[in-house]
Design a protein that fits this description.
Blueprint lengths: L1 H15 L3 E3 L12 E10 L3 E8 L3 H9 L9 H24 L5 E3 L3 E4 L2 H9 L3 E6 L2 E9 L2
Antiparallel strand pairs: 1-6, 2-3, 2-4, 2-5, 3-7, 6-7
Helix pairs in contact: 1-3, 2-3
Length: 148
């Protein structure tokens, strides 16, 4: 998971210009925020799913940084969710190649975005499949689930 953590932070920084650091999930203030989740599955040499949960409040910043806009110019929820999904899509390809190799054979399914309810957030916060991060002072959870 250390390689996955490093790759996640590297790609998020390059794509969104947001700086992050690993943070124990127990130290994240998850109750103060409303979260949204992007999740996508993949098959091939490696099969499973990747997820990222971030506060709704930072989705405009993510979208703006990817699109080269100012956050206040990102006024559409669809634009924000598409950008979050695109961020996950890019991270997913890089994580798979990090784990399997650059000649990995894989298919990425389209990301899906959804609100996170309290039960989902609690489940992610205790799951060994999720890592905690701080992205520009905001909490984030990144999950990797592999199929056998």
């Amino acid at each position: 998971m250390e390689k996955v953590s490093s790759k996640f932070l590297e790609i998020v920084e390059q794509l969104t210009f947001m700086f992050g650091e690993p943070t124990p999930r127990t130290e994240l203030d998850l109750e103060a925020e409303t979260f949204v989740l992007a999740r996508m599955s993949f098959t091939g040499d490696l099969a499973g799913s990747l997820s990222v949960a971030v506060p709704v409040e930072i989705t405009a910043e993510i979208a703006a940084n990817i699109l080269g806009l100012e956050p206040e110019e990102v006024d559409s929820e669809e634009m924000k969710m598409d950008a979050l999904g695109e961020m996950l899509n890019v991270v997913c390809g890089h994580v798979i190649m990090c784990l399997v190799g650059t000649d990995a054979n894989f298919v990425l399914n389209s990301p899906e975005e959804m609100p996170v309810d309290a039960a989902m957030l609690d489940e992610m916060a205790v799951s060994d499949d999720f890592l905690g991060f701080t992205l520009d002072d905001s909490p984030a959870l990144f999950g990797l689930t592999l199929e056998n």
